[in-house]
């Protein structure tokens, strides 16, 4: 566990740290929590449920199937990976059933890689946001992306800049939007420079 880095990232001004704990044990999560980390990100529902502990805050960051949504409501503070109308509708429906308001981010597909196809086509963003705004049990908190996995800093910067521009535009229309989630172990410094206010870091923290 990289204590120095954990401390550094917890002390960033105006940037929230989500420790991505996928593939790490509950014991490791507890150890990190003792160092001051409060929010953990998991990408698979089954794995999340095995490690769930109500004393921490949890985000779901991976592609989510509609039939798994029902297991998350009431346990997850933020679903970061909403990438379709169908999924938004199901989260809204399950949240209504439990009488809760579910915080969500819309995940956008900005990377050039065809391997990493998760996220909504940005062309569809205005329409999806207007539909989400009508759903009473969803609270739209912002946008999320995974940048291209490349050493070419220009490509990554361009993707983060596009995200920031959409975030600025739509957070004026939808004032509940306050979160721009971008940046992982390999690119969080670039993400912060380009407007991120929430980073999702796994490997570098647990190393
Ligand atoms: C795994 C993962 C991360 C963290 O990646 P690291 O390279 O381990 O920091 C961030 N976001 C998502 C969506 C992930 O799946």
Automatic annotation (TrEMBL):
Mind listing the UniProt keywords for this protein, alphabetically? Pyridoxal phosphate
Which domain of life, per UniProt? Bacteria
Q: Which CDD domains match?
A: PLPDE_III_YBL036c_like
Q: Which residues carry this modification: N6-(pyridoxal phosphate)lysine?
A: 22
Kindly give the Gene3D superfamilies that the UniProt entry links to this protein: Alanine racemase
List, alphabetically, the SUPFAM superfamilies matched.
PLP-binding barrel (SSF51419)
- Residue span(s) of domain Alanine racemase N-terminal: 3-206
Identify the InterPro entries for this entry.
Ala_racemase_N, PLP-binding_barrel, PyrdxlP_homeostasis
Instruction: Reply yes or no: does the keyword Transport apply.
Output: no
Q: What cofactor does this chain's UniProt record say it requires? A: pyridoxal 5'-phosphate
Keyword check for Hydrolase = no
Which molecular function terms from Gene Ontology are attached?
pyridoxal phosphate binding
The entry's family comment says: Belongs to the pyridoxal phosphate-binding protein YggS/PROSC family.
NCBIfam families (alphabetical): YggS family pyridoxal phosphate-dependent enzyme (TIGR00044)
Function recorded in the entry: Pyridoxal 5'-phosphate (PLP)-binding protein, which is involved in PLP homeostasis.
Record HAMAP family: PLP_homeostasis
Q: What is this protein called?
A: Pyridoxal phosphate homeostasis protein
């Amino acid at each position: 566990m990289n204590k120095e880095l954990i401390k550094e990232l917890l002390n960033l001004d105006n940037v929230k740290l989500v420790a991505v704990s996928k593939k790490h044990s509950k014991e490791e999560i507890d150890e990190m929590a003792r160092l001051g980390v409060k929010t953990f990100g998991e990408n698979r529902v089954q794995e999340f449920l095995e490690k769930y502990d109500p004393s921490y805050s949890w985000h779901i960051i991976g592609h989510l199937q509609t039939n798994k949504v029902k297991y998350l409501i009431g346990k997850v503070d933020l679903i970061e990976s909403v990438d379709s109308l169908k999924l938004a509708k199901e989260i809204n429906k399950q949240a209504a059933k439990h009488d809760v308001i579910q915080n969500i981010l819309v995940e956008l597909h900005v990377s050039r890689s065809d391997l990493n196809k998760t996220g909504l086509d940005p062309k569809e963003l205005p329409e999806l946001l207007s539909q989400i705004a009508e759903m009473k049990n969803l609270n739209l908190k912002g946008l999320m992306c995974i940048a291209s996995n490349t050493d070419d800093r220009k490509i990554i910067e361009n993707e983060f800049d596009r995200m920031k521009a959409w975030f600025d535009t739509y957070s004026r229309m939808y004032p509940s939007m306050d979160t721009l989630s971008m940046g992982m172990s390999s690119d969080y410094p670039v993400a912060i420079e380009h407007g991120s206010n929430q980073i999702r870091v796994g490997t570098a923290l647990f190393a």
